[in-house]
Amino acid sequence: MKSTANRIDATSTDSMIRLARSLIRAMDQRRFVMLRSSIGIVFLWFGLLKFFPGLSPAESLASRTLSALTFNQIPESAEIVVLATWECLVGALFISGRFPRVAFSLFWLHMAGTALPILFFPFELFSHFPYAPTLEGQYVLKNMVMASAAFSIRRRWRNASDARVASRTDEPASRRHIGTFTTDPCPMSG
User: Fold this and answer.
1) To the nearest whole number, what is the mean pLDDT of the chain?
2) Considering the entire predicted model, what is its pTM?
């Protein structure tokens, strides 16, 4: 009896280990897609919040920053709608994996804009400058993680794209570096 129970336990353990290894392999193969999608979800979510006044904790900071950039020439409500649309577009592009050049251009412009409060309102971002960020300060600082993740994704896509172009020398120059994250046969798409 005891040997049968030990074999069942050993078989169960081996099965669990094989399952865990399979899951780890699958996640490893799709890590960049998961990272890209995560960035897209955050952008889409934060963008959607800005369409509903008072829901986004960063709305006030974003509004003041945009007003400073536009010298108060554009109504605050219009600025927030443009920002919300921008963030939703970035999110949708990252989630879909389509038009990576557009997605990254919009993303990096957004990152530059979200870094400006550090210059414009540094003492509003920290309760004790420079080591204790407020909620708004944390919002700005989380963008450092987003930027690092996006840089990693972009670099991976670019390297894969360069490898594909190098292997197809007969491809017209106008088609080089064009593709998507999800449908191209590259390491990015898992």
Assistant:
1) 83
2) 0.74
